[in-house]
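QA checklist item 7 of 12: single-chain prediction sanity check.
[x] sequence parsed
[x] length recorded as 166
[x] structure emitted
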Amino acid sequence: MDILSSRTSRINQLALDGLQERQRAIGANIANVETPGYQRKEVAFESQLSEIINREDLKDFIKGQNSIKQKPATYDDFMQMQELQNNKRPLTMQEKRFLISNSYNQYDPQVMDDIFSEGTLDGNNVELEKEMTDLSKNGIKYMTISKLEQKYFTGIAEIIRGSGQQ
């Protein structure tokens, strides 16, 4: 696995993409607060991210069932690992296809009209206060994930700089 494309970093990138799309939708909502008939937009992506994480966890589980990841600490651990190795079954074609599939390519934040919010007489259902609150929440989430990514890459840079100073 490439150190610069860790699973967590990839998920964070997708989350940032979803938050950016949500920011655009909120901006459009605010811009159209007085447009007759305008239906506010929402962006849904969290369930897709959750599904990607679950798929990747399942892949890790399947891989873990078919390999020894660490040295046994005790004789009992060694015997248990030997038993697991002896009882290992080959992967099915379906499992192999699943393991090589790219869960991340299926990510597509969905922009949809909010048909459940009550609107005004002219059909517009944008509430400026709600949009401003959503704008703030979304911005905080974006900044938090960005800071985490920055710390991750700063740590990698420090490791690289440190490895040359021996």
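[x] summary fact logged: Residues 93 and 99 are 10 Å apart (CA to CA).
[ ] second reviewer sign-off
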